[in-house]
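User: Show me a protein chain along with its predicted structure.
Assistant: Here is one chain, sequence first, then structure tokens.
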Amino acid sequence: MNPKKLIIAGTLAFVISVSGNTWNDNASAEAGSYFPDSYKTARPDKNDPVEDKFLETLGVRSDEEVYDALYSGQSLADIAADHQADVQRMIDLQVAQLTEQLDKRFAKGSLNWAEYKAQITELPGIVAASVYKQYQ
């Protein structure tokens, strides 16, 4: 797979996992930020512990902690290891969340069967590569 596509897919996987929001046709990304504005405003005090499966699985308390670690060059696997979290559990969670998104897109007719099957097949590898920063 093209490294550029892998970076984009990995970033997308991370954003979907962290945001906890369901993507729709009106979704947009803020330049330079992993977290949509709707997520930021939904939690005014972002340092409070939250019930977020991704953060919980990663072993961190806030999305800023993840952002800072990623910004400093760590991978999601590094962050999980630093917090004694199970990396495979985190990969499984991201794959499940992205599979749910693909299921919805397929059900809405946004993807045909061949596209759906191809993306589902590639998903575990893309997520794992992203988690371990193997796209470079």
